[in-house]
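Need tokens for this chain, all 446 residues.
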Amino acid sequence: MSPLDLEGINEDAVSAAEKLGADDAVALSARSTDKMIRFANSTVTVVNHVEEAELTVYLAKNRRRAIASTSNLESASIRKFVRDLFDSMKGLPVSEYVPLPDKAQKFSPSKVSYDKKLDDVGEVLPELAKTAITSSHAAGGKRSAGVIDAGVVTYAILTSTGTRGTDARTSITLNIRSFAQKDASGHGLSCSSTLSGFDPTMAGERAGCDAKKMVEASEPEAGTYEVLLSPTVAANIIETVAASASAFSVDAGTSYLAEKLNRKVAAQDFNLTDHGTVAGGLGGRVFDDEGTRTSVTPIIQEGVLKQYLHNLTTARKWKTRTTGSAGFVTPRPWNLEVGKGDSSFDEMVREMKRGIVLTSNWYTRFKNYRTGEFSTVPRDGAYLVENGEVARALKGMRAGDDLQRILSSVRLLSRGREWIEWWEVDTPTLCPWVLVDGVKITRAYE
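Here are the structure tokens for all 446 residues:
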């Protein structure tokens, strides 16, 4: 058996588990191919090609459960791995065990987020990087750094109840930061599940344009502002909202959405949905970790919290059905979608009396997960808006709020939306520009 024969790997694992007497077993294997190009000082510095494969096994016996992963995928090693995992359960406490569904399912690849052109895109990555760099320089950046990642991930699942299937997805992502001077920077991002949807020119232009505008930026006055969040910044915040919608987070006492089902948690026009698979989505698959079909899960509709994300265990506790969101341990989102509005970016700026435009952020940290209190540090392009016009560039500040207040204060959403995934946003999110009232801004060094 080839070490990259995912279905054969799963057969080895489940067969070994059944011979040992496991009550339930799941083998979930994945093979990934990642092509990466990195550039610094506007010059390509690293070209890399990485192929990886991994097997994750879930076992249950006498209401004890264990989960582990391995990258040693020879048949003999898999059998030993499963045996060791099975033996480890003897010392574990009894848990809330929910058996896998008796009815076997067979899953076929969705293909909605798969592009054959990204199977062999390595040779064009240097040209795509050059396009982004050239565009950033033309827009005002003097030097640029960043990375392009293009990858294919293939999944296969097999359970002891006979459920099996495969799925695959592709993605290509560019992050570029441009500098007009040492402390004047801009950030550009382009994410797509297809090569045709990838736009390095746009990302480079944004980075270079913001870098140029940030020359002579100054600190703002501390206070409360209207804040216009770019899709990049908004997606970072929205991802934490979706994490709070996990039933595991609610049960663990770390969710600000606890005890708020069917209650108002956001503005009337705010909608948030999770998709197992969706056209253009960079994440997800047709089956979750337990072999349940993934689905479309409305989390927030017209400002009302409609659903927590569930796996089999949390669904039984909450006396509902799984949403196809497993995680063996924690239910999780796959592809998030924020509903669009009816405003353009320019219209949103004109609506601002005293506000700030934020295009990028990092270091989002929580003071209290239970109340949703957080802060984040804006960076790259940030601008003061006075009476509907951009007045000057800003730097050296921190934004603080709590999740419920910020969602409840959403005033406008843009028509245009963008897919966002990067090192500050793990869950791919289709997100508009978001105008929020009453955000607290402090100077970063006070």
